[in-house]
Amino acid sequence: MAGRGKLIAVMGDEDTVTGFLLGGIGELDKHRRPNFLVVEKETSLAEIEETFRGFLAREDVGMILISQALAEQIRPAVAAHARALPAVLEIPSKDHPYDPARDSVLRRARGLFAPDELR
């Protein structure tokens, strides 16, 4: 990866992931593993969590975009991630609007600042 930047990985429903793929984020690493996961009704919770943990372990991934509805399903794994990289950002999906109260990363960031500093 010398000379190249880090990848953005994305996990979510078909419409969300397809939008990012059309934007050009789709890549395969040297082991032919994609940097995205389209979650369908048949996708098991174990596969979702395994893919998330796999993205966390990859040296070439600098950011993971995960739909908030999906992050809720694997909340313990998302909340346990404490390193700066890869950054984990929860995003809205077509059927589930973003709720800042459920975002574990945002809650953690709020804890770093006094309430009057956030205004």
From the structure above, extract its key features.
119 residues; 4 strands; transport; ATPase_V1_fsu_sf; 18% strand; alpha/beta; globular; Rossmann fold; 4-stranded parallel sheet; 5 helices
Walk me through what this model shows.
The model has no long low-confidence stretch (mean pLDDT 85). By secondary structure, the protein is of the alpha/beta class. Helix 1 (14-22) links the parallel strand 1 (7-12) and strand 2 (36-38). It is built from 5 helices and 4 strands; from the N terminus they run E-H-E-H-E-H-H-E-H. The longest helix has 13 residues, at 45-57. Helices cover 34% and strands 18% of the residues. The protein has one domain (7-110): ATPase, V1 complex, subunit F (Rossmann fold, 3-Layer(aba) Sandwich), CATH 3.40.50.10580. The chain has helices at 14-22, 45-57, 68-73, 75-80, 104-110, and strands spanning 7-12, 36-38, 61-67, 87-91. Strands 2-1-3-4 form a 4-stranded parallel β-sheet, sandwiched between helices.
